[in-house]
Design goal:
alpha+beta; two-stranded antiparallel ribbon; 5 strands; about 50% helix
Amino acid sequence: MARARWRQRDAVDPTTPITVDELRAMSSSLPPTIGGLRDRAALLVGYGAALRPGELVGLQMTDVVVGPTGLRVAAARGVVHVPFGSEPMLCSVTACDEWRRAAGIVDGPLLRAVDRSGRVASTALGEKAVGRIVRRAATGAGLPPERFTGLSLRRGMVAAAAAAGSSRRTIMRQTGHRSERLVRDYVATGSGAHPHDRA
C-alpha cells in the first residue's frame, strides 16, 4: 500500500524545471521595487546554487559571500560556488548585492518578508514563500504558474547543466546528490528532479 501511494505521488508531481530562457523572462519581469529585488535574488541564488526551498530560506547573510569568481554559498549540505551570470538578469551576484543594499541588512536571514509599504522584516521567509515567488515571477513573464513550484529552481539548474554538457559528477557536486541514478533521472525524463530527490 505504501509503495502504491508513493508511485501515485510520482505520477502527479507537477513540478517543471525552469529553463534558462524562462529564468531570464521571470527575472526581467520583476518590478524595480524592494520586493522585486528580493524575488530576483531568491530566483537567481536558488537556481544557481541548485537549492531546495528549505535551504534557500535558511541562508544567513554570512552564508553568501562574493568572491573573485562569483558567489560562495554555504548551504546546509556544504559550500556551493555560483559563477557570475552572463548578463545582469541572470547574475546571482548582482541580484544578491542589489537586494542587500536596498534592504539595508548586514546580518541575520538573507531572504525576508517585505510588506506593501516596502518595510523589510527581521525574520526569514517561510519555505512555502519560495513557491509563491516562483509562481508570481512566472505570471509576470506570461508563463503558466501552475507548472512551477519552489523546486523548479533546483530542477532547472540540473536540466540546464546537463544540456550544457556538464557531467553527472559535476552536477552532483553542485546539487549534493549522492546517487548518480537520481541525476540520470533528471536528464532522462526531462521533467526535472526525480520525485524521490534526496541529497
